[in-house]
Here is the input.
Amino acid sequence: MAQPNRQLGLAVFSGFFGSVLEFYDFFLYATASALVFNHVFFPDLNPVVGTIASFGTLAAGYFARPIGGIVFGHFGDKLGRKRMLVWTMSLMAGASILIGLLPGAAQIGVAAPLLLTFFRVIQGIALGGEWAGSALVSAEHATSRRGLWASFTQAGAPTGSVFSTAMLALVSAFTTQEQFLAWGWRIPFLFSVVLLAGGLVIRSKVHETPIFLAAVKAAPQRRFPLADVLRHEWRPLLLVLGVSIAGSVCSAVLTTFVLAFATGHGFERQTVLNVLLLSSFITALFMLFYGALSDRLGRRPVMIAGTIGLIVMSFVLFPVIGSGSVLALAIVLPINQAVVHAALAGPQPAMVTEQFSTVSRFTGASVSYQLAGIFGGLTPLVFASVLQANGGSSTLPLSIIMSATCVVALVCLLALKETSTKSLSDSAPGVPPAAAPLPDATRTPA
Here is the structure.
């Protein structure tokens, strides 16, 4: 096999595996926040308030994601994509291992939820740099079928969710409720050390992307890539943000909030975990399908179709789950997550990377995507609070909120230009040619 093709394969697998690890840890926390953390770290609160407090620590990680996007985006555009991805992987896995070792409130009191929140923030910072970096490494190595290869990064998210849900389901199946809350939930977190070891080996074999190396050689590095994005590429930044908000909110609903909502309507915890496991596995496959389809039809048509589908299904999801039927849950969740949401999410890595110039692509992609993550982090907290306020009498407000974000995404997709045939070596529209190189004495170190 030719070296470029070998590097493309390694880059795609590295991006996929890194995304699996990052989202395994991130979704593991999200799942545990719905099922465990209210008992272990907020035991003195009533169940509903404890769940809301647990979702609050979940939201802290989402607020930290833009910080990671700015920091890792800055250095990724100046020093290269590869070395930043080693840091993001190490930080994420390290935080998860420490969460698995963290004593509960019964042992160390208020320090337990505070440390939990701190480790969650570290997870958020790590994920803030991982997603865009993985997508860029795959997309910038690809010479064709960029939508398919970049979608492996996105497919890593539901695959990571599959692994995290499977680990929790496995431990839950072999422990009693008391054992699960006492120590069983820690096992999946500690398993991160195995994933970290494998991920670092893979990433050590991936070269820096040729497009980035050529861009650095041809033009001086900008001192502050974020300033260049805000000055010259603010329009794609805002439009990508608008699209990504819907994806983030719907993902949070379909992977996190649905756990608490379904168990609150009489479903057994194990049943919901099993349905999520199946749904997430199907979603990973559909994301690859939609990524490949976007190479043929374009990014916008596929993503627009998915967004319209989400608007419709947002009014179907909650009433169907509220019916208490296991069969209905097993049908409606995969339709929402795999068939509909994946059409929006699958082509997204390629679409996002195509909106920004090479010298500021890591920053632009990270910041736009991770700012949207804040809305996803708030979604379980807001939705749980809305149900608490109306006593669970109506889920219509939840459907309205979910569909409203999709309407915003639809407007932004219509405003974006089709980029599936664009060369990533081209500067984004509106970016001026690079200025002459600065004298050595005035260069700002990375």
Remarks:
- The radius of gyration is 21 Å.
- Residues 3-35 form the longest helix (33 residues).
